[in-house]
Amino acid sequence: MSDDWQIVWFTVRVAAMAALLILPPGLAMAWLLARYRWRGKSIVETIVALPLVMPPVATGLILLHLFGRRGAIGSLLPFDIVFTWRAVVLAMMVMSFPLLVRAARVAFEEVEPRLEQIARTLGASNARVFATITLPLAARGIAGGLLLAFARALGEFGATILVAGNIPGRTSTLSLSIYHSVQLGRDGEAFRLLLYSVAAAFAAVWLAEFMAGRSRARG
Amino acid sequence: MPRLLLLALLLLSCTRTSELRVFAAASLADALTEVAAASGEKVVFNFGASSTLARQIDAGAPADLFVSADEGWMDWLAERRRIDPATRVAILSNRLAIIGDLRSARSIALADPAAVPAGIYARIYLEQEGLWDELSPRIIPTDNVRAALHAVESGNADAAIVYVTDAATSRTVRITTVVEDGPPISYPAAVVHGAEQPDAAKRFLAALRSEAAAAIFRRHGFIVRS
Hints:
- The structure holds 2 protein chains of 2 kinds.
- Chain A is mostly helical.
- Chain A is 79% helix and 0% strand.
- Chain B has 10 helices and 11 strands.
């Protein structure tokens, strides 16, 4: 039982870390996509959406080649990524990034540009307009996206198994542990873990829907 | 809409084939493919950890012949009456190979020592040597033995224990030690109970024990049992 909690706690922690780490770049990307037109925008949009539709294992393979000890990025870093908890966070970040960007982009687009213009004519700087007008008005949509990204990260499997392996006590998330218990024929253990993951996913999606509903009601 | 349904039905029905389906331990991938080509039999292989394959067969996966990398998983299927015990025969043996330096390695790739034969053999060997307790925190369990080899090939693990025959398939890794006094390794084969192609399976099993096959297995580093 204590092993179960270790797995649940580890999964929730790394998923939360992944969701928080993608927040700044995700918001920046969403803002650029929502508010500006620029060359190559459609290409960037497509690349950002890729992890949603690509086989997660293929994404994992790309990450493995980039971040492995001899990879283009991995070889430059002073610490190991592959087969450590960092690889779990990395896989989760990449897989949930598109969800956050999509939600945040819609939230930004729904903010009335006139309100921002008024603030600007009253002398507020761009940064101040963003912090005091845009962000608060988009906050619920962003929070919903963040929860969705967190929920996606909780369930990440395909990319994680490739870059992080399934190391008990070190990289074993809920999904990896479920797969492993089924492989070993420990169906009872798998079922228990399954219940936890359903509960966690349900809570996250329900909260995200709740947030989205509230933002629609206010709009 | 009816056309779409028809197409879907067609696609579903296409998955049935009359080829011989052999589920075999990952360590046999290269040698068995070669033996099949030499035998002229049309074989579709499913290579993987014997533990995974055994569970797939138990769950009703369409297999005609199973070649396991240990007796344990074959016993497990026999207890569940999923194989034809009269056809069961041990065909090969193998040895473990250590790649890299176990004591100084920060990470050691092993096929999952909780289930996969190569990992179980490696664990037994390390326990014999009194190294298991010291090394187990540094072990990276992999899906099958080839994945352990790949982890050390790609530089993502510092050391690995695999079969001699796996190490021989790699151009980049060097064997540090061949384990001569490890646990006995045995590859049993048996026709799966309720196989769709029992005759072809028996024919292929006989082909595996032929002189021609023995030569191929030996060239890959296996020990042929007679």
